């Protein structure tokens, strides 16, 4: 009930924010319209809409709708274009105080990078939008593990049989499972605060890859919309509003791999003139025993239902529900010495009883309303039920030589939230200020526990209790065209956190408590459009990541909301028509590098850190059919308060690179050869233990016609021996007299071939 009143009050506040009558003159005009596929009539979201010869521009929303307000009366040429779509334009006349409506229909065409312009008028902070839009058309996505690496320069590692969230490497961060990278899907937060296994834990496996439509990438802490965990950056995924076609897909592969996917449209495309509406359902089932000596018995089910419709001329509604469940066995991390002395094989395990299960149920609704005075109010409510059960053994027989050091981590969570934004275009003389006000709250109510276990039988409880954590946030953001070429984006975000932890066991008062902390995060960004082929930017901002609630309430000296300060300079360029390049020199200072120690249920502080880096992304059309892409990310990270020689940030990568070649033939043949590389790097502070780098090749081929598609994919084409997750860990094997500190790793995928076939209807 309290949440309902908060939502009602927030909506009232946002709707009331605006200008007086004198600032809302009726002597300007409005252009409204929709963009649709010329063949099917399907609305096209993400399409750029511009006025020829003028600076005004926007992007069509998920229903294909666009709006350009505050225009002087006159005649305009409205032009719409998008990647893989032929540009179309229409001339329209509009009088003062009136609204003109039009429909632009775009046919599909061969992808041509020469048609790309680099400016992002609707959201200048999304400077990687052009790169992401090209990747959407060219980069193959075959599994949930392929989704996060769509972020340029992001590399993942798995170390629990495929069922647990991946380890994330981005912008010089070993971000663990998401501590410094914010992830969301359709506005639903993916990162979990005060999670049983790791702070910011981002399990992305509840997303069906075939339903993903767009990815918006934001590097650094420069965007006010993101708060917690958005230090290295953020990735916003959105699922499709409507399927191009219904589809059934089957996939089989090595290691007993089987996968089935079904996606079905529920509503036909409505004729022009009727209010658009779309609905579909999707389901996915995956099974594999994976490549380890012990069968992993990995099973996952995903289900999704989504409706998007225009309820009136001014109101649209999106409703989404999804269900995810997974269970698996895991072989865990293994010590190098165990492989070297023949105790186990490279794909063996010290404790074969690791593994677990997890599930997630999501429900969300988004109501978008066009208000008077060219304003838009967007309100979203969401609920997630989440359960997590993981058996691990990181140290083998270090602490208990008889039973071993097996642990069980559990998390049973209810997550509630509201996000509201009020956006409006205001006239400041001859210039337009796009103003956005946002309010939100998120409440995590979860029971988490850490217990000792042997072969999945619990022996005793290390820690168990109820976590209550709420974030209340708000921000103001303004984007102002200072000149026709120079744009200023400035924002101020405020967050307040309330933490509470109540231990279940006796003598709980010593480890229970409450705490609160606020954080203000200003942002300031400048963008300069030299010409349609060159945009330069200078960006700066404050961000933060939160500490675990258990550490906050039991340690009065704990750093509750460590601050991050970032800044960068760079640009997006088209030196030749077929080449798009995005480059940035950046720096990020973190007030406290927090490391969650899962087997002890505590947080360790590594102190202050500094990272300097260079990002480069390039997309090049070699011929009409052949495309090349490359991402190169260099960084140098150091612990500030440690002496030289002992100041490395463990596992922080200094070089990552991804890229490949993609063929798109007009007859339906497609092929891609891709590489992944991460360098060898320090696994501890003094660099005495090194995590091993790798270079891998993957290949994909497909043949697509109007009614079917067949394809094949190969991971690790050259069958390279490589390590995924790697850690410097102190462990003891069963018969060892003393513990040993050395590199422990999860072996990477060997040569892995899969076949797939789809039917469209």
TrEMBL record:
GO molecular function annotation: carbohydrate binding
TonB-dependent receptor plug domain sequence ranges: 127-234
Compartments, record wording: Cell outer membrane
Matching Gene3D superfamilies: Carboxypeptidase-like, regulatory domain (2.60.40.1120), TonB-dependent receptor, beta-barrel domain (2.40.170.20), TonB-dependent receptor, plug domain (2.170.130.10)
Main location: membrane
Keyword Iron: yes
Pfam families: CarboxypepD_reg (PF13620), Plug (PF07715), TonB_dep_Rec_b-barrel (PF00593)
Signal peptide span: 1-15
Annotated InterPro entries: Beta-barrel_TonB, Beta-barrel_TonB_sf, Carb-bd-like_fold, Plug_dom, Plug_dom_sf, TonB-dep_rcpt-like
GO biological process terms on file: iron ion transport
An annotated GO cellular component: cell outer membrane
Membrane topology: Multi-pass membrane protein
Family in the record: Belongs to the TonB-dependent receptor family.
Name the UniProt record assigns to this protein: TonB-dependent receptor
Source organism phylogeny: Bacteria, Pseudomonadati, Bacteroidota, Cytophagia, Cytophagales
């Amino acid at each position: 009930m309290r949440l309902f009143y908060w939502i009602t009050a927030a909506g009232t506040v946002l709707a009331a924010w605006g200008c007086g009558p004198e600032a809302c003159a009726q002597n300007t005009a409005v252009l409204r319209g929709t963009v649709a596929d010329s063949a099917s009539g399907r609305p096209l979201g993400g399409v750029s809409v511009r006025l020829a010869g003028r600076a005004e521009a926007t992007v069509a929303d998920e229903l294909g709708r666009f709006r350009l307000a505050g225009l002087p009366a006159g005649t305009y040429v409205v032009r719409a274009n998008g990647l893989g779509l032929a540009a179309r334009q229409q001339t329209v006349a509009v009088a003062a105080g009136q609204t003109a409506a039009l429909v632009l229909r775009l046919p599909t065409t061969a992808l041509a990078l020469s048609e790309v312009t680099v400016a992002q008028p609707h959201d200048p902070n999304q400077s990687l939008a052009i790169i992401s839009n090209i990747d959407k058309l060219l980069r193959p996505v075959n599994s949930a593990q392929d989704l996060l690496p769509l972020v340029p320069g992001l590399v993942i590692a798995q170390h629990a049989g495929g069922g647990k969230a991946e380890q994330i490497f981005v912008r010089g961060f070993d971000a663990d499972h998401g501590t410094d990278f914010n992830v969301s899907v359709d506005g639903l937060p993916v990162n979990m605060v005060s999670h049983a296994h790791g702070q910011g834990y981002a399990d992305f496996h509840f997303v069906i890859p075939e339903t993903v439509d767009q990815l918006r990438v934001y590097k650094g802490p420069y965007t006010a919309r993101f708060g917690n965990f958005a230090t290295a950056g953020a990735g916003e995924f959105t699922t499709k509003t409507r399927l191009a076609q219904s589809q059934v897909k089957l996939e089989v592969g090595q290691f007993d791999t089987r996968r089935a996917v079904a996606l079905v449209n529920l509503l036909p495309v409505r004729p022009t003139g009727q209010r658009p509406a779309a609905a579909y359902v999707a389901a996915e089932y995956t099974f594999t025993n994976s490549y380890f000596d012990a069968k992993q018995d990995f099973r996952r089910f995903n289900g999704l239902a989504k409706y998007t419709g225009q309820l009136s001329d001014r109101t649209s509604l999106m409703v989404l529900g999804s269900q995810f469940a997974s269970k698996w066995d895991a072989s865990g991390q293994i010590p190098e010495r165990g492989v070297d002395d023949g105790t186990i094989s490279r794909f063996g395990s010290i404790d074969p009883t690791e593994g677990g299960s997890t599930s997630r149920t999501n429900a969300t609704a988004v109501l978008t309303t066009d208000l008077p005075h060219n304003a838009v109010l967007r309100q979203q409510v969401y609920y997630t039920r989440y359960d997590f059960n993981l058996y691990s053994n990181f140290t083998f027989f270090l602490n208990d030589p008889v039973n071993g050091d097996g642990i069980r981590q559990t998390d049973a969570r209810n997550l509630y939230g509201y996000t509201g934004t009020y956006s409006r275009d205001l006239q400041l003389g001859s210039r337009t200020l796009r103003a956005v006000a946002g309010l939100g709250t998120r409440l995590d109510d979860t029971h988490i526990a850490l217990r000792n276990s042997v072969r999945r039988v619990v022996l005793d409880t290390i820690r168990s209790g109820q976590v209550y954590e709420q974030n209340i946030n708000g921000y103001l953001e303004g984007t102002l065209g200072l000149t026709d070429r120079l744009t200023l984006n400035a924002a101020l975000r405020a967050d307040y956190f309330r933490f509470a932890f109540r231990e279940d066991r006796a003598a709980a008062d010593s480890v229970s408590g409450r705490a609160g902390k606020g954080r203000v995060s200003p942002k300031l960004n400048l963008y300069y459009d030299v010409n349609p082929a060159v945009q330069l930017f200078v960006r700066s901002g404050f961000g933060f990541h939160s500490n675990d609630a258990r550490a906050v309430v039991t340690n009065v000296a704990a750093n509750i909301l460590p601050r991050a300060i970032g800044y960068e300079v760079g640009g997006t360029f088209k030196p030749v028509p077929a080449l798009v390049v995005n480059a940035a020199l950046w720096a990020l200072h973190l007030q406290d590098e927090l490391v969650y120690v899962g087997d002890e249920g505590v947080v360790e502080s590594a102190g202050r850190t500094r990272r300097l880096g260079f990002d480069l992304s390039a997309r090049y059309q070699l011929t009409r059919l052949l495309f090349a892409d490359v991402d190169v990310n260099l960084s140098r990270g150091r612990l500030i308060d440690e002496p030289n020689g002992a100041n490395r940030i463990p596992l922080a990568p200094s070089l990552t690179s991804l890229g490949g070649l993609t063929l798109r033939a007009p007859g339906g043949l497609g092929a891609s050869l891709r590489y992944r590389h991460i360098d060898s790097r320090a696994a501890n502070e003094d660099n005495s233990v090194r995590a091993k780098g790798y270079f891998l090749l993957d290949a994909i081929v497909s043949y697509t016609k109007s009614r079917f598609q067949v394809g094949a994919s190969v991971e690790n084409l050259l069958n390279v021996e490589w390590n995924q997750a790697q850690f410097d860990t102190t462990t003891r094997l069963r018969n060892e007299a003393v513990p040993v500190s050395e590199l422990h790793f999860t072996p990477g995928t060997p040569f892995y071939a899969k076949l797939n076939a789809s039917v469209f209807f």
